């Protein structure tokens, strides 16, 4: 099969032949028909997240937003058969630890990303899905593989952050900081759930896209401090109180602090974005403000396998449309140029590999 392999941190992406992965009795072999190029992939390629234990080995095949068709299953696999259309969550889980038994597969004690398991990276014609009975999610009618790749990481991450962690209720206000792929997904989801959405970015083109997706109001905060950003957000909320929920889709000192300053008393921050080289996981926050205003900070990672049914149901019913956020379909040979575009935030929406020849 063909696969796009990385030569190392900031290295070239080389498309070359490699063996189709073997599968064990608990695995499935999936033929990939759509695979996203995510900013998380860029972070790994950029050498980020070493402080989290991530290390990019030369020859790694990345890709964790996967839509495909089951080609073969191991003898122990249940609920899947060749020909089934599936997505494979990026938080591969064991299914038997305490967290998995609670339906929190995204917090699995043995969770692992596809690129850390040989033969499981999605920038290839085939992938091995371990523990496939749990880690292959069948797609309902009305949800194709391109849509599955579009919801594979950024969209389903936004879903959990808005629906479960942020616990948005109809009529509540939410400020989304960063109108990249996660932010746009959060905007669409929040509107579908009855939220009043303020989109915040420093790029007018991205804010225009946010309005198309469903943002009620937009705010360009280029050059503003976090405190001034918070005041600007509060100025367009009811009685100047601030928003019920803030969602940081980027992950930086500036965006996280801006989000905190924008909250009403008793508000909650859904923190989705992970930091880059500048912060390396550590940021300063206005702790006294958090205490005095009883603010909540809620980390949000991916989406557990147990919570896909509601998301896929809304997609199948047409209430959510991840494919709407697909801006480009590319080939394996274009992966390297897309990663380079991400250096300057030049990508818009979701870029999906659909040509694996």
Give structural notes.
Keywords: Metal-binding, Oxidoreductase, Zinc. InterPro entries: ADH-like_C, ADH-like_N, ADH_Zn_CS, ER, GroES-like_sf, NAD(P)-bd_dom_sf, Zn_alcohol_dh. Residues 8-353 form the Enoyl reductase (ER) domain. The structure is a single chain. The protein has 357 residues and is an alpha/beta fold. The chain has 2 domains: 2-154 and 303-355, Alpha-Beta Complex (Quinone Oxidoreductase, Chain A, domain 1), CATH 3.90.180.10; 167-299, Medium-chain alcohol dehydrogenases, catalytic domain (Quinone Oxidoreductase, Chain A, domain 1, Alpha-Beta Complex), CATH 3.90.180. The protein contains 11 helices and 15 strands. The protein has helices at residues 39-45, 98-101, 132-135, 145-165, 181-192, 204-213, 226-235, 253-262, 287-292, 308-316, 335-343; strands spanning 2-6, 13-17, 28-37, 66-73, 85-88, 126-129, 137-138, 173-177, 196-201, 217-220, 243-248, 263-271, 296-299, 326-331, 350-355. Helix 4 crosses helix 5 (181-192) and helix 7 runs parallel beside helix 8 (253-262). The termini are close together. The mean pLDDT is 95.
List the helices and strands and how they pair.
Layout lengths: L1 E5 L6 E5 L10 E10 L1 H7 L20 E8 L11 E4 L9 H4 L24 E4 L2 H4 L1 E2 L6 H21 L7 E5 L3 H12 L3 E6 L2 H10 L3 E4 L5 H10 L7 E6 L4 H10 E9 L15 H6 L3 E4 L8 H9 L9 E6 L3 H9 L6 E6 L2
Parallel strand pairs: 8-9, 8-11, 9-10, 11-12, 12-13, 14-15
Antiparallel strand pairs: 1-2, 3-4, 3-6, 3-15, 4-5, 5-7
InterPro entries: ADH-like_C (IPR013149), ADH-like_N (IPR013154), ADH_Zn_CS (IPR002328), ER (IPR020843), GroES-like_sf (IPR011032), NAD(P)-bd_dom_sf (IPR036291), Zn_alcohol_dh (IPR050129)
Organism: Sinisalibacter aestuarii
Protein name: Alcohol dehydrogenase
